[in-house]
Design brief:
The structure holds two protein chains of two kinds. By secondary structure, chain A is an alpha/beta fold. Chain A has 15 helices and 19 strands. By secondary structure, chain B is an alpha/beta fold. Chain B has a single domain, classed as Aconitase, domain 4 (Alpha-Beta Barrel), CATH 3.20.19.10. Chain B has eight helices and seven strands. Chain B has a seven-stranded mixed sheet with strand order 4-3-2-1-5-6-7. The chains are: A alpha/beta, B alpha/beta.
Chain lengths: 471, 200
Amino acid sequence: MRETPRTLFQKIWDAHTVATDDDGSALLYIDRHYLQDGSPRKFTLLADRGLPVRRPDLTFAVHDHYAPTLGGRLADVADADARQLLTDLSRHARENGIEIFELGDRRQGIIHVVGPELGISLPGTTIISSDSHTPTHGGLGAFAIGAGAGECAGVLATQCCWVARPKTMRVTVGGRLPQGTSAKDLALAVLARIGAGGAAGHAVEFAGEAIAALGVSGRLTLCNMIVESGARTGLIAPDETIYAYLEGRPYAPAGDAFDQAVARWSRLPTDPDAVFDRELGIDAATLGPMITWGTSPDQVVPVGDRVPDPAKAAGADQAAVWRAAQEYMGLAPGTPLEGLKVDRVFIGSCTNARLEDLREAAAVVRGRKAKIRAWVVPGSTAVRAAAEAEGLDRVFEEAGFEWRQSSCSMCVTQNGDKAEPGERCVSTTNRNFVGRQGAGARTHLASPALAAAAAVTGAITDVRRLMDGAI
Amino acid sequence: MTPIVRLTAIAVPLPTANMDTDQIFPARYMSRSRSGGFGDLAFRDHRFAADGALRSDFVLNQAVYEGAQVLVAGKNFACGSAREQAVHALLDYGFRAVIAVSLGDIFASSAPENGLLAVAVGSEAAAAIQQRLAVAPGLALSIDLDQRRIEVPGLAPVLFAISERHREMLMRGLDPLSQLLQMEPRIAAFEAAHDTAMPG
């Protein structure tokens, strides 16, 4: 029995180490490998050497980046190259006995929504995918990382990957999130605190009262967004909320096996007295709705604030960065964010398109009308169906929103869904980089509630003004 | 992959912080195959305006840096999306090494796996190198993988950290998949004892 107190990260790392290198890197055994409709290079690298997929049973594929949001079928994909990538993935999956949730399958969706909802992503598992938001699954207590396509070829062949050992950081969030404030706002507040590279090379664990109060959806949002601080991954210790969520899901252990799994998962949380390389504390009660103003997710302020003055930046370099961002976004220093006219709204992505996110947005939309073009793209076909069962689709459609099919869509624009040059878009996504949502598109990242408020007012609006008694 | 033991080449200064992979390889090209090479797509929207005209003020379009094989970058270089196309675009453009203040995590391991040396030297050392490049545009520097150091005329050698595994891979031009397959006995032994339904 181990004497040294260990963190959640260390327990998973130790349990999956096959070999180590002189710099502390480990060859990790991978429990879950997720494939998306990207480059088929992973499979061609194997085929060139006549190598089989070692563990097709631990490998799962989806159509998400190129999935069309209108129609939802392969025939609805206009671009021939995109259609090729989708059919290539389906073919490779079938040839190798890999389960695929493809267009037309009722389990299709964004992998970081599908993995958790099907019970494939589990506490204590190592998860890999060639997508930078793989850390999302850390919200369930997994060690989940993004890697390059070549490294994923290695996983297909050996079920292992060399991973540089990250440092550890714990962000303890005390108190409770106030009304009108959600996990997305907490994530943006963390980014404001630590900056875009602030957690570079760290595995970040979230703990504390406010984290324990988050549902699974909020935990996934938090671990998704921490990627934008340069973190290697995010993790949250599993607890009763997670166990209740997982019980009965199609790929989760069942019956006695589930009880045994819970007993093992219960030993995962960080030991008392375990040491982190860095610790940070945040009081959730001080937070409110946040919105980005610039071209990096850490260029963010409370919605009631103004675009900052480069003269007040921390040095000449940051001042230059702020000026360039403000020029791209067409915003003068000192401009209030509230009242800024918006051209369109996108509610979607692996960050914020689960059922809870759609409910959060619908609560703001109900009884109101969209003043501008607004889309809702559910994170998966299952989320879409569940939302329809609750009548959320009618709430959005009656308000004039477009209710679309599940896809990564306007987050990354690979399927052709994008904003026009100069369009100011409030988006529940994770990146506001230059040109991210289309050449010249101006993205403001926000929570589903704040995005909904922008849609029904036509401007950036503090959503609490639309909630009785909230302010 | 072509081995790198000691590389001496012109270095291009690109100190902009948070140069994400969307800028290195725009998402709209993600469905393209590499068969024609990705060199013309590297930093596409920095090198070319929307109408296709060359942006003469962008560093890569300046004649003095023609033939450069080393990129000297800023903080958090290649952060953002995991796209390996960014690594390929840099290689196809002609770069064999990236020296940065710091690197996006996924890029930091994906680059050497594809034969592109990528090292993080911290802000002080990077600033010193950038200063030398600023006074002598077109300056060539040397990267010695055997000695783990960067030699810039006018500067003391800059030492960098690199894992033994990556160093050997790059120096011998080894392909990472072959290296991984050699681990089979240890992987099989681990797998036999590991329950993936209830790992941990």
